[in-house]
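Figure S4 source data
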Amino acid sequence: MRRPVLLVAALALAVTTGPGAVVAQPVGELTYAMHVTIAPAWFDPADNTGIATPFMVQEALHDALVKPMPQSPMAPGLAESWTESADGLRYEFVLRRGVTFHNGEPLTADDVKFSFQRYRGAAAKLLKDKVKAIEIPAPNRIRFLLREPWPDFMAFYATPATGAAWIVPKKYVEQVGDEGFKKQPIGAGPYRFVSHQPGVEVILEAYEKYWRKPPSVKRLVMKVVPEEPTRLAMLKNGEADIAYLMTGPLAEEIKRTPSLQLLPSGGQWVPAICMFDQTDAKSPWHDVRVRLAASHAIDRKAIAEADSLGASPPMGSLIPPAVEFALPVEPHRYDAVRARALLREAGYPNGFDAGEMVGTTQFASTAEAVLDYFRAVGIRARFRSMERVAYLTAWKDKKLKNLLFCGAGGYGNAATRVENYFVTGGAYSLGGQPDIDDLFQQQARELDRKKREALLHRIQRLASERVLFIPIYALYFNNGVGPRVQESSLNRIPLHYYTAPFEDVRLKTN
């Protein structure tokens, strides 16, 4: 049965927030069918992994000094303005006055400094190595002093490439501790935390004092539904209003259903094949000819058509062309004959057993398609599914072997993604490349934009020539949207996958 619609007649009900300003109170309930299990670590920006997934929750609960918005990829948030000194050594932020956390405490520069100091997620070491000191000249001003000019400070700090600029309340975190914060997070975002049933759902409620504007929808229910057919069934019978990541025939069915919408979003994440053993001289993957053979074995266009109805363009790089400083790289053409010839040249005329490819349930069909193409040229491997949270943890902790159906989805610019995937010690780097490390350090010091771009292009060219990863396509989600939704807030921010801004989501009034 269709659940009751909670929209009450009172668009009627309104609150006055200032002279002449009338804002409708949040009403109604909107339910998401989520394609992944929601991890408690996602409630804390300090643990941000530098990929898109945690922001499906963090952008509701928390807010950042600066973040992507529909009008700009680097828009004022908790900071109403910022300045950079002429010598590139000082960045100063003016905090927005009157902002409060969900517990009513005012947001101050102490919270900003505390959030940076406790940050331990993607690029944490890099950020902290670059920042010499943090000064608080006034309660609503904060100043970052760098050890040397670093043109990418804002790209690493003030975009979702990291969670360092997403602010948590200092007093509350010190009171409850890190684990207590994950159990009952408090942020400064448009929605406050109500409850979390692990593996089942998260419930959020509108924070009516959110600085930008009160959310339109009173309550959000994020239900964990990893099975795609179940997400479709929930969407069709009214149990869900938005269903993330609908692929292939199920996306086609949504497209054919008059009461539903199929909305693509994203383009930021590039699914790829990680070959963990390429640094082992005894592994077939150590030979670049084997890695190149595997890349030629894949028909990227056919996979994209099957997965996203052709919405996802084939990729030859982990960095989409729309990202700043990206080098456009043509994907290796589908050529099974060339792939077999390369394997013969490398000493594997009969192919080889590549062991397991680990991936998640959500992308199992794509991973299996890749493995079918591999088997056709002699690379034999089996797929093993892992739950997404365990998968991400094992990948980040470098506990996996053989093959991984992986991907790159971090924000920022080409340098932020290069740091994560190609530089020694990066969160998802598969090993060390001394010349790439050196080029990365050069570009980090280079203030001339054209010279920086040339250095970053050289890194991306080397990564492509060496086939460090095998990119598949730039993934565009197809999402299902039900008939009660007036504004889903999907695809309003370029390259963004999930609902954002959350406060702009609206339900229909009739």
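Figure S5 source data
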Amino acid sequence: MRNICIYFQIHQPMRLKRYRFFNIGNDHYYYDDYLNESVINRLAERSYLHANKVIRNIIKNFGKQFKVAFSISGITLDQFELYAPEVIESFQKLAKTGSVEFLCETYSHSLASLRNKDEFTKQVYKQKQRIRDLFDQEPTVFTNTELIYSDSIGNDVAEMGFNAMITEGAKHILGWKSPNYLYCNAINPRLKVLLRNFRLSDDIAFRFSNRNWSEFPLTADKFVGWLNKLDKKEETVNIFIDYETFGEHQWMESGIFEFLTDLPEKVYKKSNFTFSTPGEIASNLLPVSAISVPYPVSWADEERDITAWLGNDLQLDAFNRLSQFSERMNRCKDIKILKDWQYLQSSDHFYYMSTKFFSDGAIPVYFNPYESPYDAYINYMNVLSDFGIRLHAQVPEGSLDNEIVKLTHTIDEKDELIKKYEAELQRLTSTKTKIVTAKNKTTSTKRTGKTSASKK
């Protein structure tokens, strides 16, 4: 039988609050807690919990015949724990079914793979441990931020021990080839490469409720009919979409959940397809050839490149400024700074600075908190300025800076000691005053008593 491989991406950044120039050096908390909590709770109610319930019911009806995969960024898992722990519990129930595979990605959903191999590796291992702890699975398949991939990135992923990686089946890298086969990395053939069928994926993710679409309405019957028309030699159809498709990007009233519910039944009744996870595809199929990707590709916009995040001077300046902290972050031990470092690397901060006009841009900028790319840039750079001050205080750049920091720490310690002694002196002075006052009262009372006695 041929395979349908369904993978869902889940990521929500820690959105920054309005951080002005005058906050620099005074306010070290950068996040809009109200907005972040509102977004997570909205998505939990409208999308995640309901979609997970639908998938659990499908697995209950079809058992191991129905399988899907998820990739959830570490930043999103942190927010689930803060604002909606019931969502994690819901995913843990899915993990226990044995029909759901959890993939690995960068913890921060970052662009580290494009610039810093060491940081990239650290984030991947951090995320891998997160998946082990929460879902009791050892990830063997990797999906990079926004499906960013190149030959060299794939080689780095293979060196980390992954068996397979997911990326976009972009036309300019495929040429005449079909995305509906398993491929391998051009540098390290041990890494299998699964390519997203963007046409069928986008039919669900973007066009499902578009009444102007010539194929509207999309039903499970129609979708299976398209699958049956594919070349019989093609082995796997990879449907990779954002999980927010269900209930948020495509509202419940559109019939998207009914489509998801009906699809497995129509597939098994009317086709020779079955459902497999990315890990199973990588294990059970043989690559037909290597896929050459000398320059990074992604699943964003029509170009399928990285210009959505690094396509203008604002984005490049911000990314370069962030990257300048990398070396010193390796020596930083401050827990709060390390946590902020993870959150500030999210690719979304750079996406908000994009000046491109997207044909499918309404979905990615749905929760964009800024009025313009320039606002996003100024806000982010203000935050980075404060972050740099904090990092510099903890991890100076040179020997002179080290001496300054040591002297500053010494002065701070002296100040604390002086404050302590001043408080103690004030306490003793206050105690002495009370004692003197009490003695004076006692003496006065005695004198008064004698006077009264003599008068009598």
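The mean pLDDT is 91. Residues 108 and 343 are 6 Å apart (CA to CA).
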